[in-house]
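Subject: Re: docking follow-up (S-adenosylmethionine)

Dear J.,

Thanks for your patience while I sorted out the input files. As discussed at Tuesday's group meeting, I've set up the holo structure prediction with S-adenosylmethionine included as the bound ligand rather than trying to dock it afterwards. The sequence and the ligand SMILES I used are pasted below, so you can double-check that they match what you have on your end before we go further.
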Amino acid sequence: MTTERETRLGTVQETLLIPLYGRAVESGKEEPALSDPRAQEIVAAIDYDFARFDNLPSLVGTVLRTALFDLWVSDFLTEHPVSTVVEIGAGLNTRYERVDNGRARWFDLDLPDVIDLRRSFFTDTPRRTTIAASVTDDAWATSVASKAEGPCFFAAEAVLPFLQERDVRHAVDLLAEHFPGSLLALDMAGPGITGAQDEHDALSKVEARMQWACADPAEITGWRPGTRLLTSCTLTDLPARLHERLPAAYREMLSGLAQQRLVQVDEYRIGLFRLA
Ligand SMILES: C[S@@+](CC[C@H](N)C(=O)[O-])C[C@H]1O[C@@H](n2cnc3c(N)ncnc32)[C@H](O)[C@@H]1O
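The structure tokens for the complex came back this morning:
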């Protein structure tokens, strides 16, 4: 195990500790929605006041979101065993540990200080490469395009809402131009959420704030003719095959939540797009 490591992360970079902690806490439960022993190890090794996030409803939300991204990436790898998965804004995400198929090529991209921290926990291999760059930099896309194998899946989990809309558009253009036909999974927070972040249970505990409000996935398809929304859902409207395998207590909690019609739930949407 790595010795306890002090984190000196930038403002938006610090947000990676929320889903990391969510997965670690979840893994300690008797009946978890997902198991992530690596996240538990990493949390134990990082010197940070994680207790500020204890018992926040958002932690479970991050776990459910990750379970959905995992499902989509697994489906993609089943359909395309020799392919490429790119984690955009990877943070200390451990999707590779959960769903890798032993054949695909993986890239984990994040800002330089995050990659520095990430490198103390994960080692590059011939199939797994970390990249220190902003998603908005053109150079990484050129480099990945030259190394990618087969079709590509881009997973941007809890990343793009932190960018300005013009940067989100630039990132989508960059991906579509370098990787036409590839899949992009991302999450969208509507204006009711971005306008109330100071009251958000987890974001109110950190400095970072979301910059991009997106009320409807059609805004994204409208940016690029030919880009299609394949599917989208909220956390209370997860695909049946994911919902069915959640612990009973979660299924019950989600059906109760669905009836409350909360802005924080109804305006938070996760979408899967095919880029053109
Ligand atoms: C909430 S965290 C999510 C981390 C990871 N996707 C997960 O689900 O565990 C947001 C991540 O986006 C990264 N990020 C923010 N702006 C970025 C940019 N312009 N380029 C690349 N990564 C960025 C942050 O550094 C951070 O790791």
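A couple of observations from a first look. Residues 12-13, 15-16, 18-20, 89-91, 93, 110-111, 114, 134-136, 157-159, 162-163 surround S-adenosylmethionine (CB under 6 Å). The first helix runs from residue 17 to 27.

Let me know if you'd like me to rerun anything.

Best regards,
T.
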